[in-house]
UniProtKB/TrEMBL annotation:
Transmembrane segments: none annotated. This is Glutathione S-transferase. It comes from Hyphomonas johnsonii MHS-2. Keywords: Transferase. The keyword Transferase applies. It comes from the Bacteria. Signal peptide: none annotated. GO terms for cellular component: cytoplasm. InterPro entries: Glutathione-S-Trfase_C_sf, Glutathione_S-Trfase_N, Mito_Protein_Transport_Metaxin, Thioredoxin-like_sf. Pfam families: GST_C_2 (PF13410), GST_N_3 (PF13417). Residues 6-78 form the GST N-terminal domain. GO terms for molecular function: transferase activity.
Length: 363
């Protein structure tokens, strides 16, 4: 029996991130499908709510949240490549990509899945949940399970008005990332770091594996499709990141979009979180969202939910900034200047967040 068990599915965004990381790290793990029995018998009794992926450690402890999974494995298995760069600006950039891939590229990922692959994904959900049921029953089960995810699409800001912007922003991302991959096999050089695994979240299950989305990726950005295959396979690369804390210039267009599109939503969410936090005590469960805010993508505007979880990823970015020395801060300042991200240097959550009992809480 393997040391670790990953509970997840091929159709799941965050299972793809965890799986690719575990393969790259050479972890002895087996993956178990999250059928309805696994949710009932394994996940719900401990985690308390239906969410994947979940990693079972050799002693049976369950870990949820991909970044917690990754950090737990890094701490338990000291030998092998480290997912976090040693250099400070690279650490910030890889965390920024974690924030962008987990919490912004979810917009095109969900749009293409639900607006171009709906019937297919219902069948896939059904196959996962009830592998032994006949196809028609699987489809019905998939439809029922899928409603929760389909219902999240408008909350992400995907509407008739914004869809042209969502699609144009995604195609811009594909072109920018292809241009980057012309020069560098991974985001920060010769081998993967956290940001690469994070990108596999949106880029594998939804945008590569869902049939219509996969065709789009192969047509517009075959290099990105090739990258997805490499990272998913656990490819080790050359073993080295760029030296001297260099950030490839070809990443700057992607980071610029993050600053112009995602950052304003994070700032608004931070403000709403601050108003909420001023009224509650330490240890309070943080709600999943704080209402709706304006957003813009691909030059189209709309409203999206001010979700709380991205603030947890944002706090990880700003913690890296707070850990920097003056020289590194100056180098980061130059990068932020070029990508339109100067406000990030001083943006801090008005109250700290922590994760306990598989939930986000006020620290
Ligand atoms: N931040 C979490 C996100 C996990 C997540 O959203 N998982 C999806 C499937 S890919 C899910 O189970 N969502 C259920 C829900 O959010 O209610 C992580 O990184 O693990």
């Amino acid at each position: 029996m393997a040391d670790y068990v990953l509970y997840g599915t091929e159709v799941s965004y965050f299972s793809g991130k965890a799986r690719a990381y575990l393969r790259w790290r050479g972890v002895d793990f087996e993956e178990r499908l999250t059928t309805r029995d696994v949710y009932r018998d394994v996940i719900l009794p401990t985690v308390g709510w239906p969410v994947i992926p979940v990693l079972a450690l050799p002693d049976g402890t369950l870990v949820q949240d991909t970044t917690d999974i990754i950090e737990t494995v890094e701490a338990r298995i000291p030998d092998g490549p480290r997912v976090m760069p040693d250099e400070p600006v690279q650490r910030v950039v890889t965390r920024l990509l974690d924030l962008f891939a987990d919490e912004w590229l979810v917009i095109p990922a969900m749009h293409y899945r639900w607006n171009y692959n709906e019937d297919w994904i219902y069948s896939e959900f059904g196959r996962t949940s009830a592998p032994d049921a006949p196809p028609a029953e699987q489809y019905a089960i998939g439809r029922k399970n899928g409603e929760r995810f389909r219902g999240a699409v408008p909350m992400l800001g995907v509407t008739e008005e914004t869809i042209p912007g969502v699609e144009s922003a995604y195609e811009t991302f594909l072109r920018n990332f292809s241009a980057h991959l012309e020069h560098s096999p991974y985001v920060l050089g010769g081998r993967p770091s956290l940001g690469d695994f994070s990108l596999i979240g949106p880029l594998y299950a939804h945008l590569y594996r869902d049939p219509e989305s996969g065709r789009l990726m192969e047509r517009v950005a075959p290099k990105v499709a090739d990258y997805v295959r490499r990272v998913v396979a656990g490819d080790k690369g050359t073993g080295s990141l760029l030296e001297d804390d260099v950030i490839p210039q070809t990443l700057e267009p992607i980071l610029s979009v993050q600053m112009t599109e995602q950052m304003p939503v994070l700032v608004e969410t931070t403000n709403l979180f601050g108003a909420w936090a001023s009224d509650v005590g330490k240890g309070a469960d943080v709600p999943r969202g704080f209402g709706m805010v304006d957003f813009e993508t691909g030059s189209h505007t709309g409203e999206c939910a001010a979700r709380s979880f991205p603030l947890w990823r944002l706090q990880a970015v700003t913690d890296e900034i707070d850990a920097m020395d003056i020289a590194a801060k100056a180098r980061l300042g130059d990068l932020l200047e070029r990508i339109g991200g100067v406000p990030l240097m001083d943006l801090r959550l008005p109250a700290r967040l922590e994760r306990r009992d598989y939930r986000l809480k006020l620290a």
